[in-house]
Amino acid sequence: MLNLNDIMETITMIQEEDLDIRTITMGISLLDCADTDIDKSCEKVYNKIYSRAKDLVAVGETISKKYGIPIVNKRVAVTPISMLVAVSGGDPVKYAVTLDRVANDIGVNFIGGFSALVHKGFSAGDAELIGAIPRALAVTEHVCSSVNVGSTKAGINMDAVALMGRIVRETAKLTQDRQCIGAAKLVVFCNAPEDNPFMAGAFHGVGEPDCVLNVGVSGPGVVRAALAKASKDATMDEIAELIKKTAFKITRMGQLVGTEAAQMLNVPFGIIDLSLAPTPAIGDSVAYILEEIGLEKCGTHGTTAALAMLNDAVKKGGVMASSSVGGLSGAFIPVSEDAGMIAAARAGALSIEKLEAMTAVCSVGLDMIVIPGDTPATTISAIIADEAAIGMVNSKTTAVRVIPAIGVEEGKELEFGGLLGAGPVMKVRKESSATMISRGGRIPAPIQSLKN
To answer: Which residues of 420-442 are buried (b: 16+ CB within 10 A; e: fewer)?
Structure first.
């Protein structure tokens, strides 16, 4: 029997606390679309994605109406396109244009997988795809790109790190007339997960089924509201227990939506990614959760400890609610997408150095951070290297999504709109890292990689 209190609680979460299914993301393998003729390969890519995902948006809307649960985004993730380029050769931008066209025709907001995995070196197709990223993101609207440059098992490919600093900067420059939006659709990873439903880092890993449905659930507003009702005398372990119970309830909703959507689309259900992914909406903020725990402003001393507890409690609650928790799952700290992070950055309480420390204990890395437009490519590479090192040593996913604000003064802001929000230009260290980055080579894997 349904409990009336549970029903009313869920309605309140949705209507007043910004609870939503952030995305249903269909992962599609394109390995059978490889062809030595790039035009034929692109045709196969379009046809397979269209045939598999043409009903994705309609199914999402049907479930949303049935249960009254907002499903904000419908997305597609595909096999890293560098693998197709390895067979076909030719200009990889052709694949990006094809992905953009099919994404537009099926009605999804983003399609991820213009990607390369180069953590141990470059194989056929990788360098060509990476070199094409700036043009690909400049001429498309829906396409997202990611590159994995490191892993705990392999170490860090510093040649790729050096290259990606230049690619990030060039991508921002080619979209300067659109608030440098291209760089907001590009993520550089260490330990990239194969089943992540969130953009811009989603791609369909080679170990995944031919087609699968993954769900990303988000509810920072719900967690904040629960903490606001807690006693100011509650201990930290009591706060952690409250977060865990709240995450449990959120995950159960995701399990319901994911299972039903997969059945309607006749594909396997993959994972639930329970991530507290914020939005620019007031209240839907991870920073405000940390402040509800007892910090005057996100970024002050104690922020890393509070975030570590939050991230762990969210994962524990999710695992209790579903055996299919995967992806990133935890707390995201994207500056431009989080009203509280934006406020803290504007106030000077939150610096890139503090954000870097926070990435050691949360779900991802330096995300949606606007940096000065004159930041050298070598400095961007150094930022990537620092994050990759945190991920490599801690056996966790880390990532960098920074947006060089080309032509914008420090202290000003970039306005992306929608879920991407707006970001103040944050200060970056002026001291050079160029000599280190120019060395290239590989940072060896840490000793904890030898676990077999």
So the answer is: bbbbbbbebeeeebeeebeeeeb
3-state DSSP assignment of residue 446: coil
pLDDT 10s digit of each residue in the chain, 452 long? Answer: 445 455 455 555 555 456 778 889 999 999 999 999 999 999 999 999 999 999 999 999 999 888 888 888 999 999 999 999 999 999 999 999 999 999 999 999 999 999 999 999 999 999 999 999 999 999 999 999 999 999 999 999 999 999 999 999 999 999 999 999 999 999 999 999 999 999 999 999 999 999 999 999 887 888 888 888 888 889 999 999 999 988 888 888 888 888 999 999 999 999 988 888 887 776 778 999 999 999 999 999 999 999 999 999 988 888 887 778 888 888 888 888 888 988 898 888 999 999 999 999 988 889 999 999 999 999 999 999 999 999 999 999 999 999 999 988 777 888 887 778 888 899 999 999 999 999 999 999 988 767 76
**Dihedral of the alpha carbons of 35, 40, 44, 50, in degrees to the nearest 10:** 150
Domains and CATH numbers, the chain: 25-190 (3.20.70.20), 216-449 (3.20.70.20)
Residue 203: phi and psi, rounded to 5, are -145, 165
Distance CA 166, CA 187 (A): 13
Residue 122: CB atoms within 10 Å: 17
- 3-class SS at 149? strand
Residue 341 token pair: 């992070």
Query: Exposure of 62 by Cβ count < 10 A (0-12 exposed, 13-18 middle, 19+ buried)?
Result: middle
Q: Would you say 287 and 344 are in contact if contact means Cβ atoms under 8 Å apart?
A: yes
Q: What is the CA radius of gyration of the chain?
A: 21
CB 405, CB 319: distance < 8 Å: no
Q: Facing residues of 423 across strands?
A: 414
Phi, psi angle pair for 70, to nearest 5°: -65, 130
Round to whole Å and give the CA distance between 199 and 211: 18
H or E element, residue 248: helix 236-265
> What CA–CA distance (Å, rounded) separates 429 from 423?
18
Please give the Cα distance from 409 to 426 (Å, whole number).
10
Whether pTM > 0.70 for this model: the answer is yes
